[in-house]
Design goal:
The complex is a heterodimer of chains A (about 475) and B (about 100).
Chain A lengths: L1 H7 L1 H19 L4 H18 L7 E3 L4 E3 L1 H20 L1 H6 L3 H20 L3 H19 L6 H32 L7 H4 L4 H18 L6 H9 L2 H26 L4 H24 L4 H20 L4 H32 L10 H4 L1 H15 L5 H14 L4 H26 L14 H19 L1 H11 L1
Antiparallel strand pairs in A: 1-2
Chain B lengths: L5 H21 L3 H25 L6 H31 L13
Helix pairs in contact in B: 1-2, 2-3
The chains are: A mainly alpha (about 475), B mainly alpha (about 100).
Chain lengths: ~475, ~100
């Protein structure tokens, strides 16, 4: 019994252990930031490695918590992302007065996301969703002196509290209609009555808020711009990934009987999200805002894959998010390094970056190519699988719109690449000194972007365990 | 005198929900906006308890859920108020209209 508990909840217990470790260090020791950060990076690396061993299937606490190999893989993807964040932003983290608090909040949010992925009932789902969002709002306020940071945190906490209110109203209606909150009992009780559809619309709205699907995306760009870059990257990569995972599994497993209802909603919102995300990304000057709108457009593509309601859909979403972690973190890592040392965040400032910082430029270019979906980067294969999965429904107008949006997105990604490589600039950004961990993190992102696309067994593996 | 039934309670909770929503959209004071969210959460609690009492009296899910909602609402309010205090320090006001640096 105890063995079961320890092994099934291994990822969560490890994270809890790390949080407590950091708390004890906070109370009892006065380590320097440098050595502390090294320790945290090491522990997070061990956590990533441990995520690949001893994974079993099962459920605990009366099916409130369930896990299987696929969920363990999803958790590993998120752990990799957090490890990369701890590497990429070590310059910023080292100078932060509150390094430990930052990681305690970040890992609490990660713990919430792990429980979110494993949740087996709406009660657990709601609790872990709150655990995953409240610390992020506190983290968005981490630049205490800056006006924009507190504004971003305010927007984040208000919109997330509002969306959880809507989510709860939906859950309460669905409880009234079915008499259960358990994910495994729910599908048999869903008949598609008007009350259930209303409840589903509420639930869907809350998901759309968290995933920043148009028209619920308005908080995204503001929060991304105002928050520190490390937080923004966590928010846009890890948090998006976790919510996309649970959204897929809720739609596919719990709301399977209402598939005819949600297919149309997903389709319409996917089109709106892609189009509006792309059109707004075209006119952005600030690189963080630009990446925010690009990530909104990426969510639109994830929705295209989600609409397929089949095994390829599930695995394509997981595969795409694995790639998205690497490519988006590469872009954010470069933007963070530049903004931390020079304070420059405009795309125009990036002109002539190639003359002074070739490594940064290449990593940024790889990341953006992968986000745009250009072969041979992994992003191409991710988009390919998403769109093939979406096409399995036979709705070709929808797929054509998605493909056209891919072309639009090329324009704005290439605009940044042109600025970096081709545009002349009298005063380019000076040579930026990259410390070893940052350099290592960037190279990891770069190799990830190239290799994940070329190693075909990764997708094969995902599709076998997703079955 | 009529006994209040499920529909009466559902009507009240739906009204509370939309009053909260209206308040959230129209009020410009951050504390009032937070109070509107609390109204929404309380309407949810009312819903859960009503469904539990009238429709599923032998189950406990609804009661548990409302207890957890109360706890989470408190946690959320604590973080939100901390953020609002910090916003007040930097902007000298808790009016949302003063927080206008991030746009478009």
């Amino acid at each position: 019994m105890l063995n079961d508990f320890l092994i099934l909840m291994k990822p969560e217990l490890l994270i809890t252990f790390i949080i407590f470790l950091l708390l004890f260090i906070k109370v009892g020791s006065s380590m320097k930031n440098e050595s502390l950060l090294l320790l945290i990076q090491l522990v997070l690396l061990l956590n990533v490695i441990a995520g690949f061993f001893l994974n079993e299937e099962g459920s605990l606490f009366g099916r409130l918590y369930r896990t299987n190999n696929f969920m363990s893989l999803q958790k590993s993807i998120l752990s990799i992302g957090v490890y990369l964040i701890s590497l990429l932003f070590s310059n910023w983290l080292k100078k932060s007065e509150h390094l430990l608090e930052f990681f305690i909040l970040l890992l609490s949010a990660l713990l919430g996301m792990f429980f979110l992925i494993s949740s087996g009932s709406f009660l657990m789902f709601f609790l872990s969703l709150e655990l995953a969002t409240i610390p992020i709002a506190a983290m968005a306020n981490f630049d205490l002196g800056k006006k924009v940071s507190s504004e971003a945190a305010m927007k984040m906490i208000l919109s997330s509290a509002f969306s959880s209110g809507i989510l709860l109203f939906g859950i309460s209606l669905i409880y009234g209609a079915t008499g259960t909150t358990s994910f495994s009992e729910m599908p048999a009780l869903l008949t598609g009555s008007p009350l259930q559809i209303l409840a589903f619309v509420f639930l869907f709205t809350a998901f759309a808020f968290k995933l920043s699907i148009v028209p619920f995306h308005l908080w995204t760009a503001d929060v991304y711009e105002g928050a520190p870059v490390a937080v923004t990257s966590f928010l846009s990569v890890i948090s998006k990934g976790a919510i996309a995972f649970i959204f897929t599994s809720t739609l596919y497993q719990v709301f399977q009987p209402m598939q005819a209802v949600w297919y149309n909603m997903v389709m319409i919102l996917a089109v709106a999200t892609m189009v509006i995300g792309n059109l707004f990304a075209l006119r952005q000057q600030n690189i963080k805002r630009f990446l925010a709108f690009s990530s909104i457009a990426q969510v639109g593509f994830i929705l295209v894959g989600m609409s397929s309601n089949s095994l390829p859909g599930t695995s394509a979403v997981a595969y795409f998010i694995l790639i998205y972690v690497f490519s988006n973190l590469a872009a954010f890592g470069v933007a963070g390094a530049i903004s931390q040392q020079t304070g420059k965040e405009n795309i125009d400032d990036y002109k002539g970056l190639y003359q002074t910082n070739p490594l940064l430029t290449w990593i940024m270019a790889l990341g953006l190519f992968s986000l745009a979906g250009i072969p041979p980067t992994a992003g191409f294969f991710g988009k390919l699988f998403l769109i093939t999965a979406g096409a399995s429904k036979g709705n070709y107008i929808f797929i054509t719109i998605a493909a056209l949006n891919l072309v639009i997105s090329l324009y704005y990604y290439l605009r940044v690449i042109r600025a970096m490589f081709m545009d002349k600039n009298e005063t380019p950004i000076p040579k930026i000194f990259l410390e070893a961990p940052v350099r290592f993190g960037l190279l990891l992102c770069g190799t990830g972007i190239v290799l994940i696309g070329l190693l075909s067994w990764i997708y094969d593996y995902i599709i076998t365990i997703a079955a | 005198m009529m006994e209040p039934g499920l529909y009466h309670i559902l009507f009240i909770s739906a009204a509370l929900f939309f009053i909260g929503m209206y308040g959230f959209f129209t009020r410009r004071n951050l504390i009032t906006m937070l109070m509107s969210i609390e109204l929404i959460l309380n309407s949810v609690n009312l819903n859960f308890i009503a469904f539990n009492k009238y429709l599923w009296p032998h189950k406990l899910d609804g009661v548990f859920f409302s207890i957890f909602v109360i706890a989470i609402a408190a946690a959320e309010a604590a973080v939100a108020i901390a953020i609002i205090i910090n916003l007040y320090r930097s902007h000298q006001s808790i009016d949302v209209e003063t927080a206008e640096e991030l746009k478009y």
